[in-house]
Amino acid sequence: WSWAGCEGKKTKVTVYSDGETAELIVNGHSYGRKKTKEYKAVFKRVVYEPGTITAISYDGEGKEQSRTSMKTAVGPAELHVVADRNTLQAKTQDLAYISIDLTGADGITKSSEDTAVTVEVDGAGTLLALGSARPNMGENFFSDTHTTYYGKALAVVRGGDAPGKITVTVKAKGLLAKTLELEVI
């Protein structure tokens, strides 16, 4: 729920729910309940404003089944880099998937901000691929630079044949670089 520059604009919000009805709340303001059809409730003319958006699912008796919320990212963008594992096996096809997010100071992804990120891999491994889900990218997955999509990208690192350390550094213009270490055993 981070759409910088869209403040005050109206949008359509689709809530996915297995309940009979769903309610949409933005910063305490309810847009009412809608019947679900094919597991969706569509709320038209929702005014975007930074803060919290909450979707609540109700059963046929009107009892709350579940709820989920999203918040607006706050503060300037920064890189958040996390590997799915810290150790790779040598002499194998073992891979580490490294999530790259542009987040606010609160750790929430800034989905309206995209930028080119560069990934450098040094030591006992190699960068196998870098990409995002951007459908019209025109960028090469085998390059060390790729543009995020809705604030996200993914790097794939392969361990080498010999044990040792891998240093992965992620950079983006105007942002503080982030480094993480992996170990090949």
Description:
It contains no helices and 15 strands. With 185 residues, the protein is mainly beta. It folds into 2 domains: 10-71, Immunoglobulins (Immunoglobulin-like), CATH 2.60.40; 78-184, Immunoglobulin-like, CATH 2.60.40. Strands 8-15-14-10-12 form a 5-stranded mixed β-sheet, with no helix packed on it. A hairpin with a 2-residue loop joins strand 2 and strand 3. It is elongated, with a radius of gyration of 21 Å. It starts with 9 loop residues before the first strand and ends with a strand. The model has no long low-confidence stretch (mean pLDDT 94).
Essential attributes:
2 domains; 185 residues; Immunoglobulin-like; mainly beta; 0% helix; elongated; five-stranded mixed sheet
Short account of what is shown:
This protein folds into 2 domains: 10-71, Immunoglobulin-like (Sandwich); 78-184, Immunoglobulins (Immunoglobulin-like, Sandwich).
Count of helical regions: 0
CATH architecture of the largest domain: Sandwich
Tell me the major beta sheet.
5 strands, mixed
**Overall outline:** elongated
Helical percentage? under 10%
Q: What is the end-to-end distance?
A: 41 Å
Q: Kindly name the structural category.
A: mainly beta
What is the string of SSEs from the N terminus onward?
Answer: EEEEEEEEEEEEEEE
CATH class annotation of the largest domain: Mainly Beta
| Mean pLDDT level | 94
| Stretches with pLDDT under 50, minimum 5 residues | none
CATH superfamily of the largest domain: Immunoglobulins
- Count every beta strand, where a strand is a DSSP E run of 2 or more residues: 15
**If strands are numbered along the chain, what order do they take across the biggest sheet?**
8-15-14-10-12
The oligomeric status of these chains comes to single chain
